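CHAIN AND CONFORMATION:
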Amino acid sequence: GCGNSALSHDLHELGYTDVTSIDFSPACIAAMRARYARCPGLRWAVMDIRALAFPDASFDVVLEKGTLDVLMVEETDPWHVSPQAAAAMRRVLAEVSRVLRPGGCFISITFAQPHFRKPHYAQEAFGWSLRHAA
């Protein structure tokens, strides 16, 4: 869910020259491709975060910034998430887990409090160790 954020370009400028960004909006991806055409290490793809088209174990790092927040936007009680939102979160995180290489790192930048996200991230099936930084 890269949207029109400059994060991918900023990472490129910091020396991360192999960055793949996705969004479900074809118009958004077309605009980002055009905006950053001069950066060949930046790749753009139209994709649904619940069904990533990447092979298993294909990324060292998966970074999301606010994309998972969208899955929870209609939730009225963060202590009791609806079964639909919990299932959507599980599906996305399973995809993240699938595309990460062994020893890979998932970085989630969110507005949510850590105690609301930890139950989603700490599922045994993912085998992730968690660290929180403010």
In short: DSSP finds five helices and four strands in the chain. The mean pLDDT is 94. The helical segments are 7-13, 26-35, 67-71, 83-99, 114-121.
